[in-house]
TrEMBL record:
Gene3D superfamilies: Probable tRNA modification gtpase trme, domain 1
Domain Aminomethyltransferase C-terminal: 311-396
Record keyword Nucleus present: no
Protein name per UniProt: Aminomethyl transferase family protein
Pfam families referenced in this protein's UniProt entry, alphabetically: GCV_T, GCV_T_C
Keywords: Transferase
Sites where the protein binds substrate: 213
Keyword Transferase: yes
Sample GO molecular function, one term: transferase activity
Lineage, top ranks: Bacteria, Pseudomonadati, Pseudomonadota, Alphaproteobacteria, Hyphomicrobiales
InterPro entries found in the cross-reference section: GcvT/YgfZ/DmdA, GcvT/YgfZ_C, GcvT_C, GCVT_N, TrmE/GcvT-like
């Protein structure tokens, strides 16, 4: 007679790897459209890298509209009389300037000024915020809330989310009955009726394109998907996976925690942590606002000139992506590492995001090279390609900020 995991605790422990990853509220619709069986784990959830064709999914974002499940994104509700004061204490950006009905991009640091994560802060009401981010921070947020009359709740599983990105996104929402959606400016948010409740829609996204993010109670997720899918049929709506989204975000010059920088709580080696100025987020830091985590350390580093790294955009000769390539000065001195790279279909350039050791990428940008290993007929070939520091974003689309957007 065979022994099942239920009969043997020891075997049950050994069999833990068979446990299914959590499925998002939109999984029934995604699995029905899945032709690739190309899934990965995002925050404990089963999520698609691609569903039908990663190249065409990317072009759906740039020429039609891509629908991407963002439900696994970590979401916290920060609410109470002291919600603004608490957020002001935590985040590097000035929260008092964030009006209800608006969203802003921000970051937060430990006491040494090292970035814990970046994300978007939604001001849903005067005393209610939603924080969306990559990593889990509930214990840290609860500790930071001590002394404030505020409640911090993880609502990741309770709230489902979709990103609708691309030139036809606004037209699809109008066709779906979101009256007045065309009046939303970038980083505006508003509530719209849905299934007797409400869906929160913000003009935000991670593609550098015209786009919106929609948040709804998990129980109403499938009806929201169907509403968009039906309205988008004649506008070219397509479900997409992370690979396509990642290509678009690199073109937009956006960074990802624990990919382009190591979050402070994840860093094992002391030299891997980064301050906001070292990952291109110095512009978020409001020196004039009241005290916030890491303020003294950040300002001291600026004053003393002790910042060691800089995150830059690179344009690289040739058409072979330089992902995870080493960066050299004069072909011999190692000065940095590429964290993300693609051949950009929109920019028609070989582009990359890299972290360099100062002064390279800061005051010294001459004679930079990347070391690429390209597979050619079963063997790797070493390619040394010249790199030039260039501004981000690599692709800037007027439709991202046009209000009202074109009715495509």
């Amino acid at each position: 007679m065979s022994v099942t995991p239920q009969q043997s605790p020891r075997l049950a422990q050994q069999d833990h790897w068979r446990a299914m990853r959590r499925e998002t509220p939109f999984h029934p619709r995604l699995s029905a459209l899945d032709f690739r069986h190309d899934w990965y784990v995002w925050a404990g959830c089963k999520a698609p890298l691609s569903l039908w064709d990663e190249e065409l999914e990317y072009f759906a974002i740039r020429s039609q509209a891509g629908l991407f499940d963002i439900s696994p994104m970590i979401k916290y509700r920060i609410e109470g009389p002291d919600a603004e004061a608490c957020c002001e204490r935590v985040f590097v950006r000035n929260v008092a300037r964030l009006r209800p009905g608006r969203v802003h991009y921000t970051a937060w640091c430990d006491d040494e000024g090292h970035v814990l994560d970046d994300g978007t802060l939604f001001r849903l009401a005067e005393t209610r915020f939603r924080l969306c981010c990559q990593e889990r921070h509930l214990p840290w947020l609860l500790d930071s809330a001590i002394g404030f009359d505020v409640t911090v709740v993880d609502e990741t599983e309770a709230v489902a989310g979709l990103a609708l990105q691309g030139p036809t996104a606004c037209a699809i929402l109008k066709d779906a009955g979101f009256a007045g959606i065309e009046r939303l400016k970038p980083f505006d948010l508003a509530e719209f009726p849905h299934e007797g409740g409400a869906v929160t829609v913000s003009r935000t996204g991670f593609t550098g394109d015209l786009g919106y993010e929609l948040f709804v109670e998990a129980a109403d997720a499938l009806s929201l998907w169907d509403r968009l899918w039906e309205a988008g049929a004649r506008r070219g709506i397509r479900a997409i996976g992370y690979t396509a989204l990642n290509r678009a975000r690199i073109e937009a010059g956006f960074i990802v925690a624990n990919a382009d920088f190591i979050a402070a709580e994840h860093a094992i080696r002391a030299d891997r942590v980064r301050m906001p100025d070292e990952i291109g987020l110095g512009w978020l830091v409001d020196e004039a606002k009241p005290h916030f985590n890491g303020r003294r350390a950040i300002l001291d580093a600026r004053r003393r000139g002790t910042l060691k790294h800089i995150l830059v955009g690179l344009e690289i000769e040739g058409n072979v992506p330089a992902e995870h390539a080493l960066v050299y000065h004069a072909r011999k001195t190692e000065v940095g590492l590429v964290s993300a790279a693609i051949w950009s279909p929109m920019a028609k350039r070989n582009i990359a995001i890299a972290t360099l050791s100062r002064p390279y990428g800061d005051t010294r940008n001459d004679d930079l090279w990347v070391e690429i290993y390209a597979m050619r007929e079963g063997q790797y070939m070493k390619l040394m390609k010249r790199a030039t520091v260039v501004p981000r974003p690599f692709v800037k689309l007027d439709r991202r900020t046009a209000t009202p957007p074109a009715d495509c």
